[in-house]
Specification:
It is a single chain. The chain is of the alpha+beta class. It has three domains: about 30-160, Peptidase M64, N-terminal domain (Immunoglobulin-like, Sandwich); about 170-320, Collagenase (Catalytic Domain) (3-Layer(aba) Sandwich); about 330-430, no CATH class. It has helices spanning about 1-10, 30, 100-105, 110, 195-210, 270-275, 310-320, 410, 415-430, and strands spanning about 30-45, 50-60, 80-85, 90-100, 120-130, 135-140, 145-155, 170-175, 185-190, 225-230, 285-290, 295-300, 300-305, 390-395, 395-400. The strands form four sheets. A six-stranded mixed sheet has the order 8-10-9-11-13-12. A four-stranded antiparallel sheet has the order 4-3-6-7, with no helix packed on it. It has a three-stranded antiparallel sheet with strand order 2-1-5. Helix 5 crosses helix 7. The structure holds zinc ion. Zinc ion (ZN) binds near residues 350, 409, 415 and 416.
């Protein structure tokens, strides 16, 4: 277990929450244009407080890649939510839940150094509104309910946009149809030098197959479009402070984020999304040209993986975080994290504190299975125990439970039934 947790590492958050409200359907054409608006803002804060500071609105793409029918986020995962309201009536028009690198900072660095304030770039995209809207930046209270912390007003009549020209033309790696009804994933090549153009193309091919190599992704291949975007820089590789290596790479990524060796991330979100102007995307993968084990991911933010021998396992695991909003199911006893979810039910669908197991996967547990469920010993490589509630998950050895003995979110095994179900639910939203 320790070996695996050491290998798996890091990342991500997705937190809690309560049920989504049953909103009447918002008709896309009545409220929005088929164009993507980007919101660039800074989140500044410490352990206890944070605030959002608007930087700019940007015309990101001359079309909208998301669904035209699923405008209000019904998944209700993540610690944060962007909620767009009609300014005149207050009606909810669009929402999207997500997590942030700031949240990782809060529970690592800021939890130890309480007065330490930091600022992070954040970016959200939304369809272009036809009328004046309030863009509400929400987060959760102690009970897990969203409230509005900051509001940015956007008046489309006063917005001077220009054209959403791509900085770099995207390469179509897999095209299955209209982005409105597909899961559009863009792979950003990071750390490729001028001499690496052939390797970059090969790696795009590999990462497309790793993305679609595991179930339930494999069966849903026809629901995905995949794009590649890459810039060849003057040198290869990415920054790794542990090795004294500092590189000017395309999106400024680095190992050792928050002092965790293998936590490979970038804080340059504006730069990243500038590279993606004119590209239709719902999700971002950053493919880092370096062979040191590393990666990370944040829900509806991005997924990171180094290009190395473990990538075919790292990538699906990280996509479990970034697309599925799934929690890590392993125990990490040397982590810097100051764990949060002990008092309330975690928001992630695949871990439970058993405070409200009915709200999780209890209905999938065969009758007569004890809860908590004792560990199943002697399983073969491809075997898993029955669905139950196995102690040891969400980095915690005690008080946090996972659905099965094995899972991609624990030890790179096949996604367990609970994680598979959630991924399919998320996929279904994009194809409607
Ligand atoms: Zn699982």
């Amino acid at each position: 277990m320790k070996r695996l947790s050491g290998m798996l590492l890091l990342s991500l958050f997705c937190l809690v929450s309560s049920g989504a409200s049953g909103q009447e359907n918002v008709r896309f054409g009545e409220w929005f244009r088929d164009t993507t608006l980007r919101v660039d803002y800074l989140r500044q804060g410490c352990l206890k407080h944070d605030t959002c500071i608007l930087q700019r609105f940007v015309l990101q793409n001359d079309s909208w890649a998301g669904s035209l029918t699923q405008l209000l986020d019904q998944i209700d995962n993540g610690e944060f939510r962007l909620l767009v309201k009609d300014a005149a009536t207050g009606r909810d028009l669009y929402s999207r839940c997500y997590n942030t690198l700031f949240e990782e900072y809060r529970f690592t660095v800021a939890s130890r150094e309480r007065d330490s304030v930091a600022t992070f770039e954040e970016v959200m995209v939304m369809p272009m509104p036809k009328r004046t809207v309030d863009v509400c930046m929400q987060k959760r209270d102690k009970q897990g309910r969203f409230f509005t912390a900051s509001t940015f007003r956007f008046d489309p009549a006063a917005f001077r946009a220009g054209k959403a020209l791509p900085e770099k033309k995207p390469i179509a790696l897999l095209e299955n149809g209209d982005p409105h009804n597909k899961i559009d994933v863009v792979i950003v090549a990071e750390g490729y030098g001028k001499k690496d153009s052939r390797k970059m193309m090969e790696d795009f091919g590999k990462f497309t197959e790793y993305l679609l190599g595991q179930e339930p992704f494999a069966s849903r291949r026809n629901d995905f479009n995949v794009w590649g975007v890459g810039m060849l820089m003057s040198e290869s590789g990415v920054t790794d402070p542990n090795q004294g290596r500092y590189v000017e790479s395309a999106v400024g990524s680095s190992y050792n984020t928050f002092n965790m060796d293998r936590y490979l991330m970038t804080t340059q979100l504006f730069r990243l999304h500038n590279l993606l102007r004119g590209v239709p995307y719902d999700h971002i993968i950053i493919m880092a040209n370096c062979d040191t084990y590393g990666g990370g991911a944040i829900y509806n933010y991005y997924a990171f993986s180094a290009v190395q021998e473990m990538s075919m396992w790292i990538l699906p695991h990280e996509l479990g975080h970034s697309i599925g909003g799934l929690a890590d199911e392993y125990v990490e006893d040397d982590t810097n994290y100051n764990r949060r979810y002990v008092d309330r039910e975690p928001v992630e669908p695949n871990i439970t504190s058993l405070k409200n197991f009915e709200s999780k996967w209890k209905y999938l547990v065969p009758e007569g299975t004890p809860i908590p469920t004792p560990p199943v010993e002697g399983l073969g490589r491809r075997e898993n125990g029955p669905v139950g509630a196995y102690e040891g998950a969400g980095y915690l050895e005690k008080g946090c439970y996972r659905p099965c003995t094995k899972c991609m979110m624990r030890d790179y095994a096949t996604f367990c039934p609970v994680c598979t179900k959630r991924l399919n639910e998320v996929f279904d939203i994009y194809i409607k």
